[in-house]
Amino acid sequence: MGPLRFVIEPYDGASGTVPRLHYHPYSWIKAASVLFVDSPVGAGFSFSRDPRGYGVGEVSSSLQLKTFLTKWFTEHPDFLSNHFYVGGDSYAGKIVPNVAQKISEDIEAGLKPTINLKGYLVGNPITGEAIDMDSRVPYLHGVGVISDQLYETIMEHCHGEPYDNPKNVICAQAMDRFKALLEEIYDSQILYKKCNYLSPTPNDETTYGRILQQETGALKHPPPQPQVDCHGYITYLAYVWANNNITRENLGIKAGSMGEWVRCHEKDLPFTHDIESSIKYHRNITSKGYRALVYSGDHDAVVPFLGTQSWVRSLNFPIMDEWRAWHLDGQSAGSH
């Protein structure tokens, strides 16, 4: 999304150089000024001087983001006239509409500075509702990852049961088979090859342990180096680039503030999941007349578009235009 991208090529760490960058021809900055924020505290290069500052959750981190924006616009008033949108994808689907609502409430209360909020945008967004996970079954059936028989068994015996906590034996066995098939693919983009998973999560003990075994020098979590044609190779390059002292100096990272940059290391972040559902925020902010763009990649099995379509329909907005393709250079590039 930003102005630069990594050159995808074999990287030789012994050369003493950092991975090469090139300008991104389709960057969002060609159409807008973009603020990228490391959130929650502890993500990226963000840090807290007080250890208690890391104990945040979805609600509190949303409020911190609103506070950050208030301070930023106070220091940069020349940007107040710009149309402002809040954006994020995937997990940010719980945060973005909440932040937008908080900003709208400040506007209604007459608080200064007055941010020129116009709307928000979310991509393949989670909501916290069961539909996020439940939609994986019909989606993966539709693209042929699971069979008719397995799909019908799950539909018959798992109806109304939690995706991760089936209550009867037949459902449990069917879901085990489903998850085994899901493990065979790269779920973020089902057409990509399955490679090393570079973002260990609390439930990914095997990968986490493998990475820890490769500790070298001062850096504690170097990711395994995947093949160049793996999608995660970009993450490997990002790790090397972000942990280079020259990079840190040019980015203005305070010395000693963050010992190591990692793309995702949730075990070190005490984060509370306290937004049960973001749908109410979508309803509130759009009902006030703010614009919303909800977009989905149709090869994403993490938060499938079927679930997104379902909760969007639940908002009961009238359909002003029929479903149709949108085009790029004369070719269908998606549907809306």
UniProtKB/TrEMBL annotation:
Pfam family, one: Peptidase_S10
InterPro entries associated with the record: AB_hydrolase_fold, Peptidase_S10
Gene3D superfamilies: alpha/beta hydrolase
Molecular functions per Gene Ontology: acyltransferase activity, transferring groups other than amino-acyl groups; serine-type carboxypeptidase activity
Record GO biological process: proteolysis; secondary metabolic process
Stated family: Belongs to the peptidase S10 family.
PANTHER family, alphabetized: SERINE CARBOXYPEPTIDASE-LIKE 18, SERINE PROTEASE FAMILY S10 SERINE CARBOXYPEPTIDASE
Name this protein carries in UniProt: Serine carboxypeptidase-like 19
Organism: Aegilops tauschii subsp. strangulata
